[in-house]
């Protein structure tokens, strides 16, 4: 069974009440949502729908914007890639946020240049994850101290990302060279063994790692079948009568 | 009865007179009122309303009249004031107003026009700020930050929804219960019920214009999308609903659901084409083409079999583009961009622009387009990968990388991406945001070391 986009298993009741009422537009709820973001960062929970509501409050009341909360929300949404959450958050940010720094630094009063820079940096990470360029993702994350600052508030960021990467791998891979997997997971030697054996439950055999068969990586032939009901032909049949020969 | 006659409303250019007449009223009214964001509806003195009730029918009719796009700023301001006073009268009189809507499509026309004017006002204001050369208008706009403000527009829509208890009524209908039992004093009157109902569709649209695609879909929780729905009685409402739902799905990367929405309404339109020779035909036919363009985009992301009617029309209208989109690669990017630009809603930014820094007022379209294009770029190699894999039952990864002239590492990435993106959430039941993960790929594979093992596919 799927889970509706607006559902979050760990959402507290008072947040649910705000989201379902008009208080979701009330600027006074901003601080409640902000605390909830902090809580999600600390407790490794995640609530996209509530975070989008906060970004909407910022969209309507720019003076309430807290840069740190915005970047924390974006970093949290990276941890659920390849879902569209990161993009959905971006859509609610000010339209100039993705304008390249070169044009923006030329402006005298680009007030939130730091936010804009941070968002663009995170967007780079999002695209690398989206493109499954995992080794480049880890290299980029290490390449700039700003990244360390940005992900600092999100407890277990690297672990959460690693689990998502492992998940996407398990969907497409039955067997992979150890060296490739090491670069994808950004782990070596003992740490690698521990994660692959312990967390993923995969087998390391010399220079290859074997991923047990699952529904996604067995690559069974699919049969495209169409269930056609008679009433779907009603139109054709009616036409046949309506149109004079 | 068919709903196509409501194109009887005069086209946009013809009705400036009625607006000018109302300007005097509005100016008089503006003096009495202090605007402060959300409170403004409450602050209107209801005395002035009482004096105006005698011509209420003409005001009801006027509210549904299209405003000329090139109307001067004063007219746009006056029109906003007119809406405020009309909605105030409807919402805040002592008890429900005893009025019959002039026609069954009137409520739709009012909400539609109200949002259209909000939309075009915001776009206009942003453009004035961006161009930064019309000092006079900048001054006027700067001094009236709350005119056509997003909070007031949302306030109107939500108030109409709440007053009419329309969500409760729709929920009751879903449970096969009598809606009148929960309708209350207001909701049992057709004026309120219709305004409330179309306000839900209006919210869908406003959220989408603001880039909040998940909330847009959430808004329709209580509305069942089928031919028996109330919106289906009004062609323009029917059409608009499916366009915005489809678009929101597309932006949430639920391409199968988007295609389903667009196809549904386009088939409907194609069947009723012969009835539409009226003033509305132009706007419908424009939106029609936009939706074909959006289907082309969605099909490129998510290859699937289309209804024959749709497929034929799509090839007629966008044959060349579709071919390029489906081929993928960097050559497809300008086509994606062109089609997105021509068929997306006219996005707006909800807050007044920064008049002091014209360059900061980026057109929201560019923002949403940039985000969308990142997703296009992520996916653009999927067609290439598929076209090769289709030919083999097993394939050496390094050999394929050689064919494609890319690093094996890049190719591994493409293979992972294609596999991920073929897993999509698809609606089955309940709210529009609900759904199940479905593997939509007609070509499945897995990587085994340096070998790719595709499983052969498509049988019918």
From TrEMBL, chain A:
The protein's name in its UniProt record: Eukaryotic translation initiation factor 3 subunit K
Keyword Membrane: no
Lineage: Eukaryota, Fungi, Dikarya, Ascomycota, Pezizomycotina
A Pfam family the protein falls into: CSN8_PSD8_EIF3K
Gene Ontology biological-process entries: formation of cytoplasmic translation initiation complex; regulation of translational initiation
Described purpose of this protein according to its UniProt entry: Component of the eukaryotic translation initiation factor 3 (eIF-3) complex, which is involved in protein synthesis of a specialized repertoire of mRNAs and, together with other initiation factors, stimulates binding of mRNA and methionyl-tRNAi to the 40S ribosome. The eIF-3 complex specifically targets and initiates translation of a subset of mRNAs involved in cell proliferation.
Family classification: Belongs to the eIF-3 subunit K family.
Top-rank taxon: Eukaryota
Major subcellular site: cytoplasm
TrEMBL record, chain B:
Location(s) in or outside the cell: Cytoplasm
Region (Disordered): 1-23
GO molecular function term, any single one: translation initiation factor activity
Coiled coil: none
Membrane-spanning ranges: 195-217, 229-252
Cellular component aspect of the GO annotation: eukaryotic 43S preinitiation complex; eukaryotic 48S preinitiation complex; eukaryotic translation initiation factor 3 complex
Gene Ontology biological process terms, A to Z: formation of cytoplasmic translation initiation complex
Residues in PCI domain copies: 257-451
Ubl conjugation recorded as keyword: no
Keyword vocabulary terms for this entry: Cytoplasm, Initiation factor, Membrane, Protein biosynthesis, Transmembrane, Transmembrane helix
Subunit and interaction comment: Component of the eukaryotic translation initiation factor 3 (eIF-3) complex.
Annotated family: Belongs to the eIF-3 subunit L family.
Record's function text: Component of the eukaryotic translation initiation factor 3 (eIF-3) complex, which is involved in protein synthesis of a specialized repertoire of mRNAs and, together with other initiation factors, stimulates binding of mRNA and methionyl-tRNAi to the 40S ribosome. The eIF-3 complex specifically targets and initiates translation of a subset of mRNAs involved in cell proliferation.
PANTHER family (alphabetical): EUKARYOTIC TRANSLATION INITIATION FACTOR 3, EUKARYOTIC TRANSLATION INITIATION FACTOR 3 SUBUNIT L
Stated name of the protein: Eukaryotic translation initiation factor 3 subunit L
Species per Swiss-Prot/TrEMBL record: Mollisia scopiformis
């Amino acid at each position: 069974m799927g889970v509706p986009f607006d559902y979050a298993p760990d959402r507290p009741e008072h947040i649910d009440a705000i989201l379902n009422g008009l208080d979701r537009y009330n600027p006074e709820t901003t601080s409640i949502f902000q605390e909830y973001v902090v809580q999600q960062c600390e407790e490794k929970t995640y609530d996209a729908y509530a975070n989008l509501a906060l970004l909407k409050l910022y969209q309507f009341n720019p003076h309430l914007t807290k840069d740190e909360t915005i970047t924390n929300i974006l970093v949290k949404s990276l941890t659920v890639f390849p879902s569209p959450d990161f993009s959905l958050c971006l859509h609610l940010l000010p339209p100039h946020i993705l304008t390249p720094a070169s044009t923006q630094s030329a402006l005298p009063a680009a007030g939130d240049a730091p936010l804009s820079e941070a968002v663009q940096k995170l967007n780079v990470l999002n695209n690398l994850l989206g493109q499954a360029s995992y080794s480049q993702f880890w290299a980029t994350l290490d390449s700039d101290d700003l990244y360390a600052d940005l992900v600092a508030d999100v407890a277990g960021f690297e672990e959460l990302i690693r689990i998502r990467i492992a998940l996407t791998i398990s969907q497409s891979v039955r067997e992979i060279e150890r060296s490739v997997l090491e670069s994808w997971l950004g782990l070596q030697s003992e740490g690698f063994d521990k994660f692959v054996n312990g967390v993923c439950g995969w087998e390391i055999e010399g220079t290859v790692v074997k991923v047990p068969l699952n529904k996604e990586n067995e690559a069974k032939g699919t049969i495209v079948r169409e269930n056609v009901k008679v009433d779907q032909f009603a139109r054709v049949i009616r036409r046949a009568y309506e149109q004079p020969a | 009865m068919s709903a196509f006659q409501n194109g009887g409303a005069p086209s946009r250019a013809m009705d400036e007179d009625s607006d000018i007449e109302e300007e005097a009223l509005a100016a008089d009214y503006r003096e009495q009122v202090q605007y402060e964001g959300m409170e403004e509806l409450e602050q209107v003195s209801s005395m002035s309303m009482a004096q105006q009730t005698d011509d209420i029918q003409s005001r009801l009719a006027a509210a549904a009249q299209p405003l000329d796009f090139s109307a001067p700023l004063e007219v746009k301001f006056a029109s906003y004031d007119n809406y405020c006073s009309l909605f105030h009268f409807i919402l805040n009189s002592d008890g429900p107003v005893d009025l019959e809507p002039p026609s069954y499509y009137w409520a739709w026309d009012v909400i539609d026009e109200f949002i259209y004017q909000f939309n075009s006002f915001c776009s206009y204001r942003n453009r004035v700020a961006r161009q930064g050369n019309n000092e006079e208008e900048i001054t006027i706009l700067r001094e009236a930050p709350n005119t056509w403000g997003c909070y007031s527009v949302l306030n109107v829509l939500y108030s109409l929804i709440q007053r009419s208890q329309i969500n409760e009524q729709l929920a009751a209908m879903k449970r096969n219960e009598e809606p009148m039992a929960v309708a209350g004093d207001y909701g049992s009157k057709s004026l309120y019920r219709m305004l409330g109902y179309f306000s839900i569709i209006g919210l869908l649209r406003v959220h989408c214009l603001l880039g909040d695609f998940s909330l847009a879909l959430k808004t329709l929780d209580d509305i069942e999308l089928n031919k028996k729905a109330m919106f289906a009685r009004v062609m323009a409402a029917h059409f608009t609903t499916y366009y915005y739902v489809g678009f929101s799905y597309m932006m949430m990367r639920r391409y199968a659901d988007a295609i389903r929405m667009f196809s549904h309404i386009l088939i409907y339109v194609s069947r009723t084409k012969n009835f539409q020779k009226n003033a509305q035909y132009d706007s419908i036919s424009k939106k029609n083409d936009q939706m074909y363009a959006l289907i082309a985009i969605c099909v490129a992301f998510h290859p699937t079999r289309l209804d024959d009617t749709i497929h034929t029309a799509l090839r007629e209208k966008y044959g060349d583009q579709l071919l390029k989109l489906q081929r993928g690669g960097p050559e497809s990017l300008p086509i994606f961009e062109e089609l997105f630009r021509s068929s997306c809603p006219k996005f707006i930014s909800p807050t007044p622009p920064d008049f002091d820094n014209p360059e900061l007022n980026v057109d929201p379209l560019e923002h949403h387009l940039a985000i969308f294009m990142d997703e296009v770029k992520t996916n653009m190699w999927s067609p290439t990968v598929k076209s090769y894999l289709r030919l083999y039952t097993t394939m050496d990864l390094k050999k394929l990388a050689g064919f494609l002239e890319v690093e094996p590492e890049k190719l591994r990435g493409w293979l992972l991406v294609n596999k991920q993106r073929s897993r999509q959430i698809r609606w089955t039941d309940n709210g529009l945001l609900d759904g199940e993960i479905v593997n939509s790929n007609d070509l499945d594979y897995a990587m085994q070391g340096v070998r790719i093992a595709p499983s052969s596919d498509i049988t019918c």
